[in-house]
Amino acid sequence: MKVIHWTPKENKSQILENGILISDTWVSCSILTPFKNLNRWWLDFLLNDKEYIGIIFELKESDFPLVHSHWCIDTYQKQDDELNTIEKRRYSLSEILRDNPHSVFNNLSGLKEDYRKTIIWRIGNTVDDSNYLDKDGIYKSDDKKIIASGLRLIKSNPKKAEKEFFDNSDFMEFVFEDYEVLLFKNVEPNRIEKVIKTNTNYSYNELMNEIKTHYNNV
User: How many whole angstroms separate alpha carbon 161 and alpha carbon 20?
Assistant: First the structure.
């Protein structure tokens, strides 16, 4: 599983020499996909006018534990009685583990499994919306039923699954558009495989092909 870390281009020589260093709690990356717009979603969302480069490297077991979730960019803020911010910092791994344990992964196999299930859940939710109102009027979802619907479509019509979902850049962006990986450990410079510019149409198909093969063999 490869990831991409976007950084201002002036950091290139420093990163190639020293690696990606954790200077403020964690560093943000995205799981690399076949889809350019998804790979650079956060870059476009933040609308930063700096010129960026993408640092590509392979995740290793030594990178864990790490966080994979959406809107991880949230920070802790403390305010005074007049609602002025008096403290602002990034959440630590222990705080994320305490408040959102499902977003913390301890190994590569667990992260891949969650990535697969997220795709299958969204496919199932698209073809068979199982949301319902509980007794308090709150929308809930039957996750087991939704995943079963996704798997049923993949097994019964694999060509449709590939065309409309797995190979559909709009769908995959819908699924993972605001997801990111938070790393809490430095990345050595010898692990850097490629440096790309923001306009590079670079894609990585290995992970998606692995997921397709996995479900074709289930």
Answer: 37
